[in-house]
Amino acid sequence: VTARRVKALESSCWVEVLCDIMFESTVVVDGRGHLLGRLASTVAKELLNGQKVVVVRCEAIEISGTFIRQKNKYLAFLRKRMATNPSRGPFHFRAPSRIFWRTVRGMLPHKTQRGQEALGRLKVFEGIPPPYDKMKRMVVPNAIRVTRLAPNRKYCVLGRISKEVGWKYSDVLERLETKRKVASKVYYERKKSLNKLRAKATESVDLSKVTPVLEQYGH
Length: 219
Description:
By secondary structure, this protein is an alpha/beta fold. Helices cover 49% and strands 9% of the residues.
């Protein structure tokens, strides 16, 4: 391992040690409570390194600054278009997931083969659709708003901005998330009860006969 590689491993931004999660099949990141730009930059770097990343709950991503300021900035962005044929772009996404996707795209060399392949490793969603609702979700400590923004600073939520500029599915998403949280609570309670039963069974079993055999093999 080169010195540059070791330095990159030590400066990992994920909540767990990078050695344990790097190049897993998929890393699921919960976007709730993260700052938009900081999360996008971390995700962009991991995509370029070859990691597949899924970002869920994009509607709960936060942006520093007051709501009215950020809304006016996005409304100004909506006015930027091609004078002769607006259908050729630029394209203005309203959905929170697509706004985050476009932010990450701006941090990648997306007009090159390497950048296109990196962008293809990214998936973004509002809410937490299956199968990601049953998968372990991670956070990025360097991008969480409560650790990076002073307590007296204003901030706003990306989902609210999207709703104000034309996103039509906030009510649908709220209903789906309510159903998901109820099902998730039932799943978690069942998982806790099964873990208790497993621990109880482990304590009650007699391993005195097999322990010497297991020790011979280093267990």
